[in-house]
Design a protein that fits this description.
Strands 1-2 form a two-stranded parallel ribbon. By secondary structure, it is mostly helical.
């Protein structure tokens, strides 16, 4: 059994990154979750059941990245670091220092900062798609679907607005990430098209696809702009985005 996860001075609710310390020390750092790492599933289970860890990752068929994302879906301190410093000042040396792991250990999983940005971006993609999946429920009315969509998108972009700004405006794209982005974009638009169809789609599939593209751009643009302005938490803004999306979907069914 090895590390506890921490990030230096710890805001309440954040996950801890690797540090050779006892769980009690991690709690003193005001960690929301304490995550350990070890060599086997059996040891990981003991860390949770006997030693007081909230979760533990282990070397096995599932990647450490995926296990950490599941254990701390709200994000780890590496993403917070990227958001604070921006792409240009984001370095693997500082990541290793802040997380308390050796640079050699870090390189086993992330050989450079491009690999780190890829992992962070993929987690963001997964979070957005998870939000879109929640509105794909036939039991929900159109208004409830739109409210679920807007609330979820605002929530996921409110966790670390500075990070999303870096991902949108500063971070370069890699060949590997481009393929992930293409897959994300296809699924992203497909889920919006499900919403368009549920609202009363047309027999012309191309029109529904165009509507999904326009609606997704409008919602994402409003939310990204609010994140840059620092107004995401404004209830009035949320209400207006819901009204915008809902009005478009209803109006579209009357125009042929």
């Amino acid at each position: 059994m090895r590390e506890v996860y921490r990030a230096g001075p710890q805001p309440p609710g954040e996950a801890l990154r690797p540090l050779g310390a006892h769980v009690d020390i991690a709690r003193l750092l005001r960690a929301g979750r304490v995550i350990g790492s070890t060599s086997s599933q059996e040891k990981a289970a003991r860390m949770v059941s006997d030693l007081g860890y909230d979760a533990a990752v282990f070397r096995g068929p599932r990647s450490i990245t995926d296990q950490l994302a599941e254990a701390a879906p709200e994000g780890l301190d590496v993403a917070q670091l990227l958001g604070r410093h921006g792409w240009a000042k984001f370095t693997t040396n500082e990541v290793a220092e802040v997380t308390g792991v050796s640079i050699g250990t870090l390189y086993q999983y992330f050989p450079n900062k491009f690999a780190l940005i890829d992992a962070i971006t993929r987690r963001h993609f997964d979070g957005v798609l998870a939000v879109l999946q929640t509105m794909d429920d036939d039991a929900l009315s159109l208004t409830e679907r739109v409210e679920t969509l807007v609330h979820g998108m605002i929530t996921i972009h409110s966790v670390n607005p500075a990070l999303h700004r870096v991902l949108l405006e500063e971070a370069p794209s890699s060949t590997a990430l481009q393929s992930a982005h293409d897959a994300f974009e296809a699924e992203y638009l497909r889920r919006y098209q499900v919403l368009v169809t549920a609202a009363g789609g047309r027999s012309d599939q191309a029109s529904d696809q165009a509507a999904a593209q326009g609606l997704s751009a409008a919602v994402a643009g409003a939310i990204h702009d609010a994140a840059r302005r620092g107004t995401l938490a404004t209830p009035l803004l949320k209400r207006e985005i819901i009204a915008l999306a809902g009005a478009y979907l209803r109006l579209r069914t009357t125009i042929r």
